Amino acid sequence: MQLLQTRAELLRWRQAEPAPLHFVPTMGALHAGHAALVHRATQTASTGAGLPRVLVSVFVNPLQFGPGEDFNRYPRNLESDAALAASAGAAALFAPEPAELFPGGEAELTRLVPPDSLQRGLCGRQRPGHFNGVATVVARLLGLVRPQRLLLGEKDWQQLVILRRLVADLGLPVQVWGCGTVREADGLALSSRNRYLSPEQRAQAVALPRALARAREQAWGRPSANLEALSAEVAAELGQAGLVVDYVEAVDPHSLQPCPGLGRPVLLAAAAHCGPSRLIDHVFLMSRQPIVAIDGPAGAGKSTVTRAFAERLGLVYLDTGAMYRAVTWLVRQRGVDPGDATAVAPLLENLDLRLSTAAAGGQQVRINGQDVTEAIRSPEVTAQVSAVAAHGCVREALTRQQRVMGERGGLVAEGRDIGTAVFPDAELKVFLTATVAERARRRAKDLEQRGFPVPEHAELEAQIASRDHQDASRTVAPLTQAADAVELITDGLGIVAVVEQLVQLFRERVPEDAWPEPQA
Ligand code: PAF
Question: Which residues carry out catalysis?
Answer without folding.
Answer: 34
